[in-house]
Design a protein that fits this description.
Layout: E1 2-8, E2 22-27, E3 30-34, H1 40-47, E4 56-58, H2 64-67, H3 69-79, E5 86-90, H4 92-107, E6 116-120, E7 124-128, E8 132-138, E9 147-153, H5 161-167, H6 173-179, E10 184-185, E11 191-192, H7 194-197, E12 206-209, H8 220-223, E13 228-232, H9 240-245, H10 251-261, E14 265-269, H11 277-285, E15 291-293, E16 299-302
Parallel strand pairs: 3-4, 4-5, 5-6, 12-13, 13-14, 14-15
Antiparallel strand pairs: 1-2, 1-16, 2-3, 7-8, 8-9, 9-12, 10-11
Helix pairs in contact: 3-4, 10-11
Length: 310
Amino acid sequence: MFEILFLGTSASAPSAKRGLSAQIVKHDEYRFLIDCGEGTQRQILQSGLGFKHLTRILLTHGHLDHILGLGGLLSTFMRWEAIDELEIFGGRTTLERVRTLLEDVVLRGNKAPMPLYFREIKPGIILDADDFTVTAFPVTHRGPDCLGYVFEGKSRRPFLAEKANELGVPFGPERRDLVAGKEIILPDGKRVKPDDVLGALQKGLKLVVVGDAGKTDDLFDVCKDADALVIESTYIDNEAEMAKQFSHLTAKQSAELAVKAGVKKLILTHISRRYREKDVLKEAQAVHPNVSVARDFDNFQIKREEDGHQ
């Protein structure tokens, strides 16, 4: 299961009810902060999540409404909070701007209170864990090196506990060996093969997170069959020309992408304060049946289809 907690859902500037872009993706013990707009550290505190495991920050691009919160966050780490290390991932031009902010403005010749790493990335896998991967992909927006991220569980064969019980497989290392694809021999001499207790191969969950984007035709392949897609909706359709001018999307465009790509759940964010939430939702729901407009502190659980989505 993946979870995504929205800390900031406004476009360009904060509103009374929406902070600037930031989301946390959670999977087991992993935490990823995606973008860090102004005020993100306060949103983290208000969410109750805390800073301890937020050691990886994934940046979609270098516009100020997506990175300015890094200055305050590092300043807080220098005085109040402690983490083991901090890795900041992004494209080359994004990291150049972030380095200037953190090294020249915040640190000013001082040493960071933790090992601080700037990880320049290009499209491709950036993390390959035991049961999931994180992959960066290119996004078209204003300026170079704009990225989105795919969180995808690895395909697996579920362990059929009832079958194992019927065959007399004890709890413990025997079951771990079967899951790992190893044949075991029971005390009575009976051989049990992995195929005896493993179900059909299941594709892993897929969560796609797009930052700011100016078009969708280059996002189809990466979004195909996603269990959930998080994507911007800065404009609505009656201002489509303005959206095109500033390289942003409308709610309708995002919903059309989701339908075309077979996305199960569409979550819209980066909402301009010029619109009412219900108007953004109405436009998208006319195209895609399963849409939410994220609010600050909304938490979505991305589960297997048979368990449903929240």
